Amino acid sequence: MADRAALEDLVRVQGERVRGLKQQKASAEQVRPRRRKRGQNEASEDRAGVVCIEDRDLEEGTRLIEEEVAKLLKLKAQLGPDEGKPKFVLKTPKGTRDYSPRQMAVREKVFDVIISCFKRHGAEVIDTPVFELKETLTGKYGEDSKLIYDLKDQGGELLSLRYDLTVPFARYLAMNKLTNIKRYHIAKVYRRDNPAMTRGRYREFYQCDFDIAGQFDPMLPDAECLKIMCEILSSLQIGDFLVKVNDRRILDGMFAICGVSDSKFRTICSSVDKLDKVSWEEVKNEMVGEKGLAPEVADRIGDYVQQHGGVSLVEQLLQDPKLSQNKQALEGLGDLKLLFEYLTLFGIADKISFDLSLARGLDYYTGVIYEAVLLQPPARAGEEPLGVGSVAAGGRYDGLVGMFDPKGRKVPCVGLSIGVERIFSIVEQRLEALEEKVRTTETQVLVASAQKKLLEERLKLISELWDAGIKAELLYKKNPKLLNQLQYCEETGIPLVAIIGEQELKDGVIKLRSVASREEVDVRREDLVEEIKRRTSQPLCIC
């Protein structure tokens, strides 16, 4: 142990020697011409015995450093690995990230837009545990069940991190015997996915859910969910978007008349759901080659799932000789026709497309399903805009609550989820491209002084402002320079400065300065709070 301590001391001393030589070489490179003119020695030795590089030829200096580094490495090799000091990499886990104050400011403003819309439509807020019993989540997500994070046994319960907010909501309804609620829930969920963080996909991410539970007349709650989706995406101003709608009953009816066996409905459904990412030929190859579907059955499916349009397509399919004979499909088409009537009254029908390829792979959907995608402009005139990514989705799930209820009582539900991580990425990229400054605080005013020895007065004033609900700051210096205080406001985006000076104290006023215009006015101290509120009452925008 003593030998190791001695070696550690030698390593430390040798390390200091190497660092000193490198610093002296850097200094010599800067002053070398001047020193040569004065005829100084090329090298000298300091009091610690370290050879100093001054005007020595730089190549010789480099050689000397290399020799000392070699000695240091030899000492470290003798020392060997330190078992007592565990080494670790400073990084976030795969699929996760930290958020800077700037990024958090953007996220909070996006959340504000979403939450205000949810509240405008009368939603209450709930919360549920971040982990659930494993059996609660098992069998609800189809092929995506493999992405659930399982936790180690902790005290006799098998637990998993929640995969979404919908299944915990259904468990909450069944456990509390609720049959009617309009709720929103914003929280993190976890998926053991292969993350693509540049596209806003993570293993830990937020979901923003809105759901309506209860027995109501057909399509009224569904239409409101689509209206909310359109309101939020329009308010966020992230670009043109299109909402694709379909119905699981239409899909199931279509599979039935095309010759798909009941046991393969869900697995074929998950293949069809990939049509927004890959070509029909690739989807067909997967259905035939990997899932054992007959080629002619796949071709019949292809005739349907490549169609999309508006209410006219719904009416066309209602006349389809085969599809109209299937009871499930007929019910789904009838509801979609009614839905389009309501969407027209809400003024959003032009944002909706009936798309037969939309399948939504989750097992719990039973009726209308929808997904919003951002559009990029067409490459050439006359072409249709291309979808560049899903930013919201949802649908009807009338049977999920019944899976948890001991008596199997069903509570019809419909809801939506906003893909906020994707939206955050888009907003951040836009702000970076525009080089826009984002305020990371909401401070309304900085309390400043124009002369020295006014700290007590600054503290009294800022306390009055805080007690009145004003967001205020001061610099943590006894006698800060006025210029430094004004520069701080410009750097952080604080709009106002309340300046205290000896003359202002005598007159019973505060000098209120606008940072942007540099205009100054004297405000009576008793009127200062109202004046600050009046000047800073404008609502914040996203960017």
UniProtKB/TrEMBL annotation:
It catalyses: tRNA(His) + L-histidine + ATP = L-histidyl-tRNA(His) + AMP + diphosphate + H(+). It is found in: Cytoplasm. GO terms for biological process: histidyl-tRNA aminoacylation; mitochondrial translation. GO terms for molecular function: ATP binding; histidine-tRNA ligase activity; identical protein binding; RNA binding. Residues 424-451 form a coiled coil. Pfam families: HGTP_anticodon, tRNA-synt_His. Gene3D superfamilies: Anticodon-binding domain, Bira Bifunctional Protein, Domain 2, S15/NS1, RNA-binding. L-histidine binds at D164, L165, T166, R191, Q207, D211, R360, Y364, Y365. This is Histidine--tRNA ligase, cytoplasmic. It comes from Bos mutus (wild yak). The lineage of its organism: Eukaryota, Metazoa, Chordata, Craniata, Vertebrata.
